[in-house]
Specification:
The protein is mainly beta. The chain contains 3 helices and 11 strands. Strands 1, 2, 3, 4, 7, 8, 9, 10 and 11 form a 9-stranded mixed sheet that branches. A two-stranded antiparallel ribbon has the order 5-6. Bound molecules: fe (ii) ion. The site of fe (ii) ion (FE2) has 3 residues, from strand 7. Its EC number is 1.13.11.3.
Length: 251
């Protein structure tokens, strides 16, 4: 029997989960200003995937550096740490059936505690933290699980409307077993009042789809006197799929 190269489990032969286009926002959401120029103006053309796009390469743990999953320390000077609220983000990458997806490369990037990115085009007033780079990565384990440490990113203003602010968020990229299998989304934090005021979030028509992007505080996984924990599961296909912002225009 054919098997998955990483897990040795049988290849899925069950029903294909069609993409639910009502779950994902339309590509054109004028309240999110850049979507006006970015959304397709003409009918889409589909291309078949090539074998190399769908079959490889496979990511392995050998490519990970020590500390890649610890944003508190991975850019800090020896003996120092990033400023901010210490957090653990954890969860599972699962498919529509709830089966874990092993071997997925997760990359994450975020602003610092003051809401500023370490990027030359970010000129926000908040200072850079010399001990915080703002990016990291990890690979899901056999059950699709992942975890990393960081500091809670701050909200920041952005030039969309006259006074628009992004809620605290962490960007996620998920690679499957090939470079063509990339999905991108954002995670928000439970209780943040800016979530429901954000023009990007408000481009998502279904409230339940938005709520799936909000990581819940998990006191059980919190480390006392150290860090709070937030749980964020990523679903790859079907009605309960996470909203992926780079898949708005088609499949
Ligand atoms: Fe951002």
């Amino acid at each position: 029997m054919a098997s998955d190269r990483l897990s040795n489990r049988p290849v899925e032969t069950g029903p294909f989960f069609q993409r639910d286009r009502n779950w994902h926002p339309p590509a054109l959401t004028p309240g999110y200003k850049t979507s006006v120029l970015r959304s397709p103006q003409r009918a889409l053309i589909s291309f078949d995937n090539t074998l190399s796009e769908t079959a490889g390469p496979v990511f392995g743990h050998a490519m990970l550096g020590e500390g890649d999953n610890d944003l508190i320390h991975n850019f800090a000077s020896p003996g120092e740490a990033a400023l901010g609220e210490r957090i653990i983000v954890y969860g599972r990458v699962i498919d529509e059936r709830g089966v874990g997806v092993p071997g997925a490369l997760l990359e994450f990037w975020q602003a610092n505690a003051g809401g500023r990115y370490r990027h030359k085009k970010d000129g926000y007033l908040a200072p850079l933290d010399p001990n915080f780079g703002g990016c990291g990565r990890t690979i899901t384990g056999g059950d699709g699980g992942y975890a990393f440490r960081s500091i809670k990113p701050g909200p920041y203003p952005w030039p969309n409307g006259p006074n628009d602010w992004r809620p605290s968020h962490i960007h996620f990229s998920v690679f499957g077993h090939g470079f063509a299998q990339r999905l991108i989304t954002q995670m928000y934090f439970e209780g943040d009042p800016l979530i429901w005021r954000c023009p990007i979030v408000r481009g998502i028509p279904d409230r339940a789809a938005i709520e799936q992007l909000i990581a819940a505080v998990d006191m059980e996984a919190t480390i006392p006197m150290d860090a709070r924990a937030f749980k964020f599961d990523i679903v790859l296909r079907g009605r309960r799929s996470t909203m992926f912002e780079n898949r708005l225009e088609g499949n």
